[in-house]
């Protein structure tokens, strides 16, 4: 898909069919995420692929968003602050690993759309419950949950602030 078309086609989908996501599509999504730029090319993030109904239910509970459990698969993007802090110290631990994880999640979100699948960025959740649901180590912080599947709804486009309200000249 052409990039401009892709970014206009992406929607936040919260209802999924029961159709499973093909392994080759999941692989392509993960590969796209790993191509995202990162500070010092350290890729200071980890990706959890969650297919277990129990773990997806735990993620849904952590987010207080039941639809998460109904997606056939979820990807959880976590910071790995230790990877970044070895080179960049506190800034790597507190900022760069967060940026790395969110950029990778964004690449995954666009790949999901490009492959004819649907998702939504879930960022509102209890960090401790989400980390426990996936078995993440203590210093890895979940920052985004992407439930993935085939859309069972077709949301209307969201409205966005006009560029004139957000673009500043310095």
Verbal overview:
- This protein has 170 residues and is α+β, with helices and mostly antiparallel strands.
- It has a single domain (14-153), classed as NADH Oxidase, CATH 3.40.109.
- It is built from six helices and four strands; from the N terminus they run ααβαβαβαβα.
- It has helices at 3-9, 23-34, 53-63, 81-114, 127-134, 163-166, and strands spanning 45-50, 73-79, 118-119, 142-149.
- A four-stranded antiparallel β-sheet has the order 1-2-4-3, with helices on both faces.
- The longest helix is centred in the middle third of the chain and has 34 residues, at 81-114.
- It is globular.
- The relative contact order is 0.23.
Would you tell me the overall average pLDDT? Answer: 97
- Count of domains: 1
Please report the first level of CATH classification, the CATH class. Answer: Alpha Beta
Order of helices and strands: HHEHEHEHEH
Q: Quote the CATH topology.
A: NADH Oxidase
Q: Total helix count?
A: 6
Total count of strands: 4
Q: Name the overall outline.
A: globular
How would a crystallographer describe the biggest sheet?
A: 4 strands, antiparallel
**How far apart are the termini?**
35 Å
Approximate strand percentage: 5-15%
Structural class: alpha+beta
